[in-house]
Amino acid sequence: MAAKRLDESATGVFIIAATPFTENGAVDYDSIDSLTDFYIRSGVHGFTLLGMMGEAHKLSGEESLAVVRRVIARAGDRQVIVGTSHAGIDNLRRLSHEVMSAGAAGVMVAPTPGLKGDDGLYGYYAQVFAALGPDVPVVFQDYPQATSVFLPVPVFGRLVDDFPQLVMLKHEDCPGLGKVTRVREDEKRPGRRRVSILVGNGGLYYVQELRRGADGAMTGFAWPEMLVQVHALFASGKAEEAEDLYDLYLPLVRHEQQPGMGLALRKEVLRRRGAIRSARQRAPGSSLGATDLAELDNLIRRLERRLAAAGRSSPLAAE
């Protein structure tokens, strides 16, 4: 069954999917299947493909579409968002329409680097929305650490007012807790739509962002079941229990967020959990040394002990 189009009601965990490669650097389509199944067993509500942590910039156009089609074919009724950011709007439009035709629920677009001022940012997205047309739901990817483009809340409000196809904010500004609060306060103005907010940064500020009004997470932490369970507890009014659970995983959340090696750690954990066959990244990419692997071993053992003491199952138990 095809998933419905993305809209402002989106909530839960949209996992940023890794892209598996074989040891010789080819796309590992069998591991895409097993990884998709792993994410589904973990309870994710949707998928985000071709994100910055999905090594999208290392894929050819043909490979990108093949990955999208492979996941959509296996994802069932779970919505799939596809990152289509590109320096050229024509290329962005082409890829967006191709993935929507393949069954994607919406696309995610980051501002192109180098935009100047509020008018420059607004004008860029106005061009994007005009190119995509009114029927393509869009996620604004707010990740100034990578784009060097800051999104002021009033500009985001103008875009929400003027372009109904803007249905979600992917929030990764840092520090950015105050921005979540300001967006939610700004939405109280008469006539202003409330859009979905999903948060990233590896889940590093997940609990606080949920407390401030976020609707869930869009990130790729290698224990996605934690993200799902924390969201479910929050949704049922058990915020303290949710934070207690999150705290058990916090050392690994923090460890995975190391610049330059976070993806290597994430892929190694996914390999150990049987989700993919190889932790390889397509060149250029980072790798883990013996000391890195020993540190990871220790952190996982410590997590297993904490989970056991809390009466929860081991994260490396058979899925």
Automatic annotation (TrEMBL):
SMART domains: DHDPS. The keyword Cell membrane does not apply. One of its GO terms (molecular function) is 4-hydroxy-tetrahydrodipicolinate synthase activity. Keywords: Lyase. It comes from the Bacteria. One of its GO terms (cellular component) is cytosol. Gene3D superfamilies: Aldolase class I. Pyruvate binds at M218. PANTHER family: 4-HYDROXY-2-OXOGLUTARATE ALDOLASE, MITOCHONDRIAL, DIHYDRODIPICOLINATE SYNTHASE. Belongs to the DapA family. This is Dihydrodipicolinate synthase family protein. It comes from Vineibacter terrae.
